[in-house]
Amino acid sequence: MDDPMTPWVHYWEKCVGSGHALLGLRSDWQRHLKIVRDELGFEYVRFHGILNDDLSVLQVINGEPYYSYYNIDSIYDYLQSIGMKPVVELSFMPQDIAMDPTKTVFHYKGITSPPKDWTAWTGLVKSFVSHLIDRYGLAEVSTWYFEVWNEPNCGFWSGTYQQYFYLLQITEQVIHSISPSLKVGGPASCQSGLINETMAYINNGTFKLDFISTHLYPTDFTPLKVDVMKQVVSSVRSIVGDMPLLYTEYNDGLYGNPPLHDTPFASAFIFKNLVDVEGLVEMFSWWTFTDIFEEGGQDHVLFNKTTGWGLLALYDIPKPSFRAFQLLHQTGQHRVAGTVPPDFYPTAGAMATSNQTHLTILAWNHQVPGEPIGTESLSVSVSGYPISFSLPASIRRIDDQNGNPYGLWLKMGAPQYPTAQQIEALMGASELQSGSIPYTFIEGNMNFQFDLPPQGVASIVVSLPLQ
After folding, report:
1. What is the pLDDT of residues 395-418, one digit of tens each?
2. SS3 285
3. How many domains does the chain have?
4. Is 376 a catalytic residue?
């Protein structure tokens, strides 16, 4: 795999996504966020609609703007209380300054219109950012990210691209006029789009961005390809050069029938793709951390809904995707040498990490829907550890039989409103079970052999002797 001292940076923990800002006032949303902060290590959270009318941010009264940040403060105060920070997506347009307030998206009616008066927009941004600095301090707010809008190329902006780039220009200018230490970026595009156009504006001096942000889902392109995330991210990296590259949305895909995000498919996708894009991005933000999510209204169905992209289901139940991030969170800070012959395993792979106390091997067996995949019998060899095979090794799995509450829910008859006893059983089914795994130690190599079913993952942990 790699040199024993190659860093293994937990870049995927930088940020996680959510629905819209108003949800941040709900106790269940807050509880879920604290769980993923404490157990998965996420540092930032991003959501839509911080300027939405449902937060009462701006009203025009007698021709004058009246700003109110109480609801926003309540949300950001909570983030601060649990040691998290926001990626501040500057959206959507308040009704009283929108050119066309009938242009909306989602159940919560986020307005996608340009402003009818551009100075009204810059006045709002200046007031908002200045308020944040007054409340939290410039040093703190300078660690946040201000992302201008959301997906202007995918139905979230009813104006022209020229108008969007003007919005980006004047927003960057007003924020940097407050302090050049503040971080501003965009285009927050879908499908890794508008990158060339954004870089052209940067290169001709129209605006100065501190980062490039965009989104990517494996279903953005057809036919489906198992390596599409690495291919697209690598291409975007070559365009933006050394600029910080933030993927502020991704997940295992916007599959509709059947949705796969509740299944072990998502955990196998996570393992493979987080290894694939390592070193290419500064941020890779999973969409979303919770099924407390109202783009189409709050759905009561526990699993198997097309909008259930959360790591946590309703009733606080961790999905296989949550468990995958939990296993990743427990990996070390360095990659270590090892071998997994790729020609032998067309759909499987593995890598190893270490810290002072543990060696961890991650393995996955992943393929896109509709392509051949079977159980793989893996042989994984790790070198560089002059120890005996008497040290204990354990294995934890996520697959159809392990860490899979969705499977139990189906066996229950897919209850729409599960009882307390059913919720307790589903929580139990989500737990990772640890078992011992033997290995051989020959000529300085630890050798493991184990099977991985389709869309399965495994984490093997070897306790190292104290140095």
Report:
1. 999 999 999 999 999 999 999 999
2. strand
3. 2
4. no
